[in-house]
Amino acid sequence: MLLLFKKFKYLIIFLFLxxxxxxxxxxxxxxxxxxxxxxxxxxxxxxxxxxESNIDGYIASLDENITLLPPGGPILSGIENxxxxxxxxxxxxxxxxxxxxxxxEIVGDLAIVRKRTIVYLTFKEGFQSISSSGxxxxxxxxxxxxxxxxxxxxxxxxxxxxxxxxxxx
Length: 169
What we know:
This protein is an alpha+beta fold. Helices cover 41% and strands 36% of the residues. It has a 6-stranded mixed sheet.
């Protein structure tokens, strides 16, 4: 046994020193998987709020410093301005969402989310458009979304920047 130790002592020392590194890698991998699960749950909750026309549920998905960058509309900052944007959106129409895939990159306390979503909009009786500038107007809109999420103090994720580009067929 002593002969084996002498023969492989540098290898044993090297592996011993690398032990904490592998432990940290495993921990980081676990944390990333946990974050990805939280982000997926975040989007399920957000999409449910959209499909239920639930403004408060939607607003609960937003970081207090939210910025909305709608194509063809003004840049909006802050939750109250976002709420004012949403009121006519949910008053005039209902929505169904079809997720077509996403890519999530986590960088510290930020997550960059690129996703493709088809939005099915149905105008309510008496409405033919939505008065919020930048809001989707088409009955079927295929878009590439770019969101930046921020990890909150409690470990949850909320949307800090929300933007999209409509895919033209």
